[in-house]
Amino acid sequence: MAKLQLVGNYSQLHRLLVKYGLQDKAAKLSIKIAKFGEGIQDEMTEFKQEFTVSKEEMDLCVNSILHEKDVEKSLGCFTHSFIPNKEREKESLDRIVKDAPFLHMIPQSIFDERGRVKAVVGGIGTDLEGNLIVHISMSMKFNAIFLNAVIEEGKQRGIFTKENILSFITKSPAIKTERIPIITKGLEAYFNQDYFVALHLLIPQLEEAIRNILEIGNIPTLKPNKSGNGFQLRILDDMLRDPIAIQLLTDDFANYLRILLTDNRGWNLRNDICHGIASPQLFNKMASDRIIHALLCFGVFRIKHE
After folding, report:
1. Is the confidence at residue 130, as pLDDT, over 90?
2. For 20-85, where are the alpha helices, taking DSSP H only?
3. What is the pLDDT of residues 52-75, one digit of tens each?
4. Contact 297, 83 (CB under 8 A)
5. Separation of CA 286 from chain center
6. Measured between alpha carbons, how far is 133 from 89 in angstroms, rounded to an integer?
7. Confidence at 112, pLDDT banded by 50, 70, 90
8. Is 44 a residue whose pLDDT tops 80?
9. 85-101 average pLDDT score
10. Cβ(110)–Cβ(240) below 8 Å
11. 232: which of 140, 159, 225, 306 fits an S-S bond (Cβ 3.0–4.6 Å)?
12. What does the alpha-carbon distance between residue 33 and residue 111 come to, in Å, rounded to a whole number?
C-alpha cells in the first residue's frame, strides 16, 4: 500500500480510537503514523505553474508603492499593499472552484517535510474557511515575487534601511523601547542575509507587539495557569481569534497574522520555528520578507488622543 494511503487509513483509525475513548491505543498508533509518513513526499507528484510578469507590470507595482521623497508614506503604502484582502481572495477562490469543482470537493491533507499530517482541509462545501486559508497561503507565495521586488528596489532607493524601519516602528505603541536592541539585531541579520538569526529574533517580537496592542485595547493577554495559583500568557492563536481583537486589528490583518504565524493550514512560521519543527529550507528570504512586512504593519498603529 502506498504510504499516502496507509497514513490516511491509519489516521481515520486514530480518530475512531479517540472518539471512543481508547487514548492509550491512539497514542501507540500515532507513533506508527509518524513512522509510516517518513518519505511520503517522494510518492507525491509535483505540479508547476508558470506565469510571466512583464517589466512594465513590475515597475508599475513598485512605483505605486515607493515614494522617494516620503519614506513614511512608502513604508505605510507597503504595509497596506501586501495584507491579503479576504473578500477579494474569496472571490478569487470562487472563480477557481467554478473551473475545477470536483477537485475542491475532495478533502486534502497537508504534510510536513517528515510526512506527518499537519492538518486536514475538508471539501469546499463543508470547510470554506480551511480552503480559503490554503488559497490565501498560496496567494502569498505568488505575491512574494512583487513583495521582494518592492523591498529590493526600496533598498536601492535608500527607503528600506535598518534606520528607516526602526524610525517607522518606534512611533508605534506596539513596539516597546526595551525591545529595540533585539529588533535591531534581527534587522541587521536580515540585511546581512542571515535569515536563521533574523527569523529567530524577529518572530517573538511580533508576538510581543500583538500583546502590546491588545493590552492597549483592554483585551486580556493572560489566563489562569493549570495549577490555578497564577497566570500565564494566552496562546497567540487564541488571542488572534478573539472577536474584540479582530475588531481592533481588523479582520484582514488578524487573518493575515494567523496564516503567517499560527495556523497549521497556512505558513505557521511562529509555531514551526519557535518549536524547533522547521527544516533549514524554511529559513529563507521569502519567509524573512514576510516577517519584515508584518513588523512594519505594527508601525502604522498610533494612539488616538481624544
Report:
1. yes
2. 23-36, 55-65, 71-81
3. 888 898 999 999 999 878 999 999
4. yes
5. 11
6. 9
7. confident
8. no
9. 92
10. no
11. 225
12. 12
| The total number of residues written for the chain in this structure | 306
Kindly tell me the burial class for residue 106, based on how many C-beta atoms sit within 10 Å of its own C-beta (0-12, 13-18, 19 or more). Answer: exposed
**Is 306 a residue whose pLDDT tops 70?**
no
CA max distance for the chain: 67
Neighbours of 258 (CB within 10 A): 22
Pairing of strands 108-111, 117-121: antiparallel
pLDDT at 289 over 80: yes
* Calpha distance 210→79 (Å, rounded): 16
Q: Which residue has the cell 513598485?
A: 62
Cβ-in-10-Å burial (0-12, 13-18, 19+) of 119 comes to: middle
Q: List 109's β-bridge partners, or say none.
A: 120
Q: What is the pLDDT of residue 29?
A: 86
The pLDDT value given to residue 101 = 83
User: Residues with Cβ < 8 Å from 23, sequence gap 6 or more?
Assistant: 17
Take residue 208 and report the three cell numbers written for it: 510581543
DSSP reduced 3-state for 5: helix
Give the gyration radius of the chain's Cα atoms.
Answer: 21
Residue type at position 180: I
Cell numbers describing residue 83: 495584507
Type of residue at 17: L
Contact (Cβ atoms closer than 8 angstroms) between residue 63 and residue 152: no
